What does this fold into?
Amino acid sequence: MFKDIISLQNIRLSLFIALILALILPIHSAMAAPKSIAVTTSKDIVDASNVSSLTALQQSPGPDGRISLREAMLAAEATPPGDAIQISFNISPAFMDVQTKTWEIYLNSFDPKAHRTMPLPALKRGNVSIDASTQPGDAPLPRVFVNGFEINEPVAGDNIGFRIQSASNTIHALGLINFYDTAVSYTHLRAHETDSYLVCRLLLE
It folds into this structure.
């Protein structure tokens, strides 16, 4: 009799735990944000209504239905620090240079308040990978280039491709051209870079 009571209590406890897990796990799954986002246009625009998170941007990418590098970086920066985020590339062949079979992101996003073309957002969150080797195509790497020719300089030293101000960021297989100050600046800890890091890889940790 005593063993039967213990067994019944164990069954009730197991059912209770199973019920709690059944209630918690769907909520956790619904709240979990995706940890990757794909750039799908070479245009330098921000027409999405919400770049407060990766999920928000993916759900509402704007009237064109595409995600720009600037939008992806804004959404990544708005995501609370923690898990790694990968910004990959899957730009349509419609934006490809048919002769070189490459894609060029020409930075020309104009801020009317600042009266200038804006640089890309600084990487302050940390743990963000921008990996252009993911761009499908037949050309050798780099297949994607970022052109900073139009960035204005209200102050000296502002024409910079990527401003890295946090740890554990990676830029991979991305060509950076026409940045007159420097293609990449970094202010956090130490950098490990290849000889051709502008088109290959830059890792900060």
